[in-house]
Design a protein that fits this description.
With 95 residues, the protein is mainly α. The chain contains four helices and no strands.
Length: 95
Amino acid sequence: MRNFPMSPTSRSSPQGSALSVLFAVCLAALTLPLSFQGGAIATPAIGRDLAGIAAMVAWITNALMFTFGSLLLTTGSPADRFGRKRIVTTARHRA
């Protein structure tokens, strides 16, 4: 078996790869709290429409966070076992 040297254009620098991963993680950390704001912003309107008080409709935001956390933990185990890329592509094909 012959070993062919990689061409200069096909190499990726470890520092560039680490910076892109760091950027992706920081972007995810910034956008995750924004996903929870939808329920918090909609809660007063839902309370008005359903004639409920804020304490009674606060469960909407809590339910959203609880569901998200549960699904995150539920999908984390198969992602560790089978690989994140395979889980994401399977989910995209089923949607």
